[in-house]
Amino acid sequence: MQGFDETFDWVVIGSGSGSMCSALVMRRAGKSAVILEKTGLVGGTTAKSGGMMWIPNNRFIRAAEPAESAEKAMQYLDAVCGDSPDTPGTNRENRQAYVDEAPRMLDFIIEQGVEMERATTYWPDYYDELPGGCKTSRVVGARYFNLKELGAWEKRLQPGFLPFPSKLDDGMRVAFRNKSWRLRLLFAKIAFRVVLARVTGKSYTTAGAALQGRMLKAALAAGVDIRTDSPVRELILDADRVVGVVAECGGRRVRIGANLGVLVNAGGFARNQQMRDKFMPGTRADWSNVPEGDTGDMHIELERRGAVLAQMDQMVGFQTTITPNFAKEFVKPPGQSLTGRPGAILVDQSGVRYLNEGGSYELYCETMLKRNRTVPAIPSWAIFDQRYAEDYQVAGQWVGKARKPEGFLESGYLKIAQSIEELARLVGVDPATLAATVKRWNGFVEKGVDEDFGRGVREYDKWLGDPFWAPNPALGKIEKAPFYAVNIVPSDVGTYGGVLIDSKARVKKANGEPIKGLYACGVTTASIFGGVYPGAGASVGPSMTFGYIAAKHAAAL
Ligand SMILES: Cc1cc2nc3c(=O)[nH]c(=O)nc-3n(C[C@H](O)[C@H](O)[C@H](O)COP(=O)(O)OP(=O)(O)OC[C@H]3O[C@@H](n4cnc5c(N)ncnc54)[C@H](O)[C@@H]3O)c2cc1C
């Protein structure tokens, strides 16, 4: 087809997880590749994320635990995801493609110089009690990274939330440093590295920014053409084949040809309130943790070109608490640890518990939204006592001390009362009901069994609790006055619905046939895990892997 301003073998829309991985595959095969990023920063939500990837049967777990296998991973995914007409994004073929190719993708990026490691030996799958579930860890991440290695590109990487030379897991564990000398030592070690970095002129980052920083460095070294401020507006078709895109590069409208194909890795629609109202009513863009470029433009364009949208009501919920400073927070205060620690429960506006406060954040928020259809549950209330408030932070602050964090009381955010009944009145809940809920909960803790929701049974609930709390790290009584309440709402770390792809990452039409020349990965697609989040890294892992699969298919490798 004539009329292109320029042509590449591989054109990638968006600079998310799979983009640079796919472009690296292409460069290794001697093909040219361009990444067109809408915003002024490279890396997408991925760079702002934890950067964890859920990769079963990866080289690290295989070396440490010979019982791990692809079969076990498939058994787990079959049990967790299942197959349902409501979630056509997941099917055995796509899951098998993931389980087979994700470890290969990991080996490939390591060969390209991207330093990766097992995130920890203890980050259980989110449904570890199911067949094939892992009680240790299938999670991998990038080693922390010195941003100075990016040279002029340093300032063009989407910032991360943990600008420290440490593992994400270490960063989370130091929250318990008041309970362990070993963790105090770890904290001191990280603090020493921070000082050393300052003295030696290094600028470290970890988590998603480390992953995307390392991927960016590898992609630039391999000669990938990466352009920021270059939104793609349209896909170009020649008969039934996608042959290029219309983009705005440097304010100029350009037609860019793609010899081998176009990969759409343009994120989701978490920041588009109109789309949220249409597909997931009751959820809010301003509660989301996702950067503002995540507006679903490519969902709309892909549908216009014959792709099928599915699972559009799905998001990766991540509960939060709306503090006085909420709007200014780079990452919204995590509500998961808040109610997951022993000695806190979650109740709806009738004062009743309605879920396991442990478990997957995706399931937690889904349950909140469902509950809210019958009993007002947005916001719900986290209820805890003085012992809890002395042991754990709430929204990054110590609320159990005599002097309360600035604004917490004045704004009405933190509710405190000498009795559960008085606390109930403060949050507008029937006092007798809340008192009965807390009594019932304390009874469960005494027995060591949550008879209502099974909290504390799965390993992941325990992981979320307090490792220094016995006998069950997830179960603790609420008994020492004063008593506290803060709100909890269903925020998110992204949407989880989009176009249907096949096991080669090709975008499918309504008749199930692939659209020639068109690939997609990441949260632009309907998750290959359906409406379930199987473990930490179930967004970034598939995005990277299907980017890898797409490029291999397009280059016939
Ligand atoms: C705080 C936080 C922690 C998280 N932790 C994890 C974790 O540890 N593991 C995990 O798996 N998930 C995690 N998530 C979720 C995860 O980060 C996202 O779901 C994932 O990164 C999405 O990746 P992606 O490849 O689909 O796209 P993204 O990384 O979102 O990238 C898409 C890019 O496309 C660009 N774009 C959009 N439209 C266009 C257009 N028209 N033209 C050109 N470019 C366009 C966007 O600007 C963006 O840069 C976390 C999220 C947050 C916010």
**Strand count:** 21
Bound molecules: flavin-adenine dinucleotide
* Overall pLDDT score: 97
Structural classification:
alpha+beta
CATH level-four homologous superfamily name of the largest domain: FAD/NAD(P)-binding domain
First CA to last CA: what distance? Answer: 25 Å
- Low-pLDDT runs: none
| Biggest sheet architecture | 8 strands, mixed
Shape: globular
Number of domains: 2
Quote the beta fraction: 15-25%
CATH class of the largest domain: Alpha Beta
**Residues in helix, %:** 25-40%
CATH topology of the largest domain: FAD/NAD(P)-binding domain
Question: Can you give a write-up of this model?
Answer:
The chain has 557 residues and is an alpha+beta fold. It folds into two domains: 6-225 and 530-554, FAD/NAD(P)-binding domain (3-Layer(bba) Sandwich); 326-490, Succinate dehydrogenase/fumarate reductase flavoprotein, catalytic domain (Flavocytochrome C3, Chain A, domain 1), CATH 3.90.700.10. 32% of the residues lie in helices and 17% in strands. The protein has helices spanning 17-28, 44-48, 59-64, 70-81, 92-111, 168-173, 181-199, 207-221, 273-279, 297-304, 336-340, 361-371, 386-391, 420-427, 431-447, 459-464, 540-554, and strands at 6-13, 33-36, 53-54, 116-118, 139-142, 145-146, 204-205, 225-227, 232-238, 241-249, 252-264, 309-310, 315-317, 344-347, 380-385, 415-417, 483-488, 492-495, 498-499, 506-508, 514-520. Strands 1, 2, 8, 9, 10, 11, 20 and 21 form an eight-stranded mixed beta sheet that branches. The protein has a four-stranded antiparallel beta sheet with strand order 14-15-17-16. Helix 14 (420-427) crosses helix 15 (431-447). The longest helix is centred in the first third of the chain and has 20 residues, at 92-111. The model has no long low-confidence stretch (mean pLDDT 97). Flavin-adenine dinucleotide (FAD) binds at residues 13-18, 36-39, 44-46, 48-52, 161, 231-232, 265-267, 289-290, 293-294, 297-298, 316, 331, 493-494, 522-523, 536-541, 543.
